[in-house]
Each structure stands twice: as structure tokens, then as C-alpha cells.
């Protein structure tokens, strides 16, 4: 894809609110989809620029849907946690502090933390779900836990 067309696709992802990581990882997702399409023996689209813009739009929508699902999961888990310990004030303070700490983490770190500790997925499952290497999952988990722990100590919650 030519540089000016590639910039247009990146701009499309930016306007669609897609994650910044999708625009910085080397091969933009629309270009990767085009390579997969042609490698699979399918013909390249006639207007690659228009096709890439549509793919970028779909990727942004998918990202927003996943983010909404993640937010709803967090809300359900918080409601379950509160139902388990309705009178425990210390647990409520800790739950609130953890929720605030999670909100401050970068999206990628929060995502792996929620999948690991709230959805109880193993590292391999998280890697498969997100399409990233297991080492990246481990690194993000380590960094996220360290940051969350520091935040809880800073707020004197633990």
C-alpha cells in the first residue's frame, strides 16, 4: 500500500477511535488483511484504498464492541463482589481502590489483568484471545500488577 494511502487508513483508525497500538505495530491491520486475502488465493480488491478504509472502519467498530464488553464484564464482576461481601466496609474500600487503579492502567495492561484475574483465563488463553505472544501477556501482567500494587500502597489501601 502506498505511503499516502497507508496514512489515510491510519487516520481512519484514529477517527474511528481504534487503539493506537494498531497503528504502531509495523503492519497496519488493513494491510495485513490484504496480504492474508491475496495469500489465500483471493483476488485483490479493485480499489484498495476504499477497501482498506472499510476494513479500518470495521476494525474500529470491533474494537469499540470489545471495549464495551470489557466494561460490562467489569461492572458485573464488581456487582458480584459487592453481593458476596455486602457488610464488609474494608472490602468495599479495597474494591473501589482496585477499580480506580484499573481505570488508570493503559488499555492493554487492563485488558490482560481483567482476563487473567477476573475471567480466570490462563496466559495461553489470553494470548490466543488477543492474538499476541505469551511473553507479551506475561510482561503486560507483570507491569500491570506492579503498577496496581504501587497505586494501592500509595493510597494506603493495603
What is the topology?
Blueprint (H helix, E strand, L loop, with lengths): L2 H14 L12 H11 L8 H37 L4 H16 L2 H12 L4 H8 L3 H21 L4
Helix pairs in contact: 1-3, 2-3, 4-7, 5-7, 6-7
Structure commentary:
- Residues 1-16 and 20-24 have low confidence and may be disordered.
- α1 (3-16) runs parallel beside α3, α5 (107-118) packs across α7 and α6 packs across α7 (134-154).
- It is built from seven helices and no strands.
- Helix content is 75%, strand content 0%.
- It has helices spanning 3-16, 29-39, 48-84, 89-104, 107-118, 123-130, 134-154.
- The chain is an all-alpha fold and 158 residues long.
- The longest helix has 37 residues, at 48-84.
Based on Cα principal axes, name the global outline: elongated
Strand portion, in percent?
A: under 5%
State the share of residues found in helices, binned by percent.
over 70%
- Calculate Rg over CA atoms: 19 Å
Strand and helix order = HHHHHHH
Mean pLDDT: 75
N- to C-terminal distance: 52 Å
Q: Count all strands and give the number.
A: 0
Secondary structure class reads mainly alpha
Low-confidence stretches: 1-16, 20-24
Q: Could you describe the largest sheet, including whether it forms a barrel?
A: none
**Tally of individual helices:** 7
Task: Tell me briefly what this model is.
By secondary structure, the chain is mostly helical. Helices cover 75% and strands 0% of the residues. The protein is built from 7 helices and no strands.
Summary tags:
158 residues; mainly alpha; 7 helices; 75% helix; elongated; disordered N terminus
Amino acid at each position: 500500500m502506498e505511503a499516502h494511502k497507508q496514512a489515510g487508513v491510519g487516520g481512519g483508525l484514529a477517527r474511528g477511535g481504534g487503539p493506537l497500538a494498531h497503528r504502531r505495530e509495523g503492519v497496519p491491520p488493513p494491510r495485513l488483511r490484504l496480504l492474508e486475502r491475496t495469500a489465500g488465493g483471493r483476488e485483490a480488491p479493485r480499489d484498495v484504498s476504499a477497501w482498506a478504509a472499510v476494513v479500518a472502519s470495521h476494525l474500529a467498530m470491533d474494537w469499540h464492541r470489545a471495549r464495551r464488553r470489557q466494561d460490562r464484564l467489569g461492572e458485573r464482576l464488581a456487582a458480584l463482589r459487592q453481593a458476596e461481601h455486602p457488610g464488609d466496609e474494608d472490602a468495599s474500600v479495597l474494591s473501589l481502590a482496585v477499580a480506580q487503579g484499573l481505570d488508570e492502567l493503559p488499555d492493554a495492561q487492563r485488558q490482560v489483568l481483567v482476563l487473567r484475574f477476573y475471567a480466570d483465563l490462563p496466559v495461553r488463553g489470553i494470548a490466543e484471545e488477543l492474538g499476541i505472544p505469551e511473553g507479551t501477556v506475561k510482561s503486560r501482567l507483570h507491569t500491570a500488577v506492579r503498577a496496581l500494587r504501587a497505586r494501592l500502597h500509595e493510597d494506603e489501601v493495603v
